[in-house]
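Notes on consecutive records. When two proteins share a document, each keeps its own sequence and its own token line. Never mix them. Below: protein one.
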Amino acid sequence: MALSTTPRPKKCKECGTKFQPRGSFDPVCSSIECKVAYGLKVAAKSKAKREAEAKRKAAEQRKADKEKLARLNPGYLEGKAQDAINEYVRYRDYFYPCISCGKPAHSLVKWDAGHLKTRGANSFLRYHLWNINRQCVQCNQHKSGNVAEHERGIVARYGAERLEFLNTAPRSRRYSDEYLIRLARIFRKKTIILKKRKGLD
């Protein structure tokens, strides 16, 4: 006696009704609505799977890149974070005069992001925005930060409480590689937004 090759009836995965599939792998009935709905779900799952895999590979690549950079240059990540924050500060204070000497904002000089408390001796404040202000290159580099006038400028612009905080803040802090990478990424984005808001892009 020959065995039947007709697939058994099964339940449609969309509408739930029983139907006679044409093949053993038919998941839904012959309704166009069910076929479209099921097809969209399959496509969405496939897309989500591809995106998850892409994110996983990207995360693995970032980790590998970070480890490679750390081996090649231990200060690389610190520098990238500092560069991103310094650029943000220069645009944040774009319309302010030099914090130390009062040189007008649009003077044709080079502008730095000057730290009141030096980065090497005060790692806790290295990336703190209260410790960094737009400063002309003469004050920042040629006058070693022009510290006394920088302090006066902070008090005049922001108040004595800010200077008090900077003078009493802890001196040291350790930053993880993950923190530094995130810090650089955040401030690059913040700078783009700030430039657009100020019409400087």
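Protein two starts on the next line and is unrelated to protein one.
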Amino acid sequence: MERTKHSMRIFIGIDNGVSGAITILSESGVVLRHIKAPVKNCLNYTKKKAFHNRVNFKALYNTLQDLRHNAFCMIERPMVNPMRWVASVSAIRCLEATEILLEELQIPYQFIDSKEWQKVLLPSGLKGDQLRKQVLMLLKDCFQS
């Protein structure tokens, strides 16, 4: 199904990672859906018996499959820091799963740094919990509009 001039364009914002989130916006900026990243807890691949979270590919597919003809996705560039190796590996693994899914659904995407979108949407100088609270307030305001 090709996009017609009457169909609404959808924008998907993905905060990459197992603790991330997905926001789906209409062309006019209305928040259509905001969810935590779908994850599942799995046995780790290391020798030591442990568990880790992974992207739940099927749940993510079900969330995005109906948007594939009218959507464009912005993915927050993952944190890669050798000093935070475990978190970096987790972020990269999530990114790979998300990219494969978007390519399978033929949803075009590009990467964006967190500072780039935060500069447009949030007051400057926020850090840590202040930043997190401001983002949550922004989303709450979007849902009430």
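For the record: The first helix runs from residue 57 to 64.
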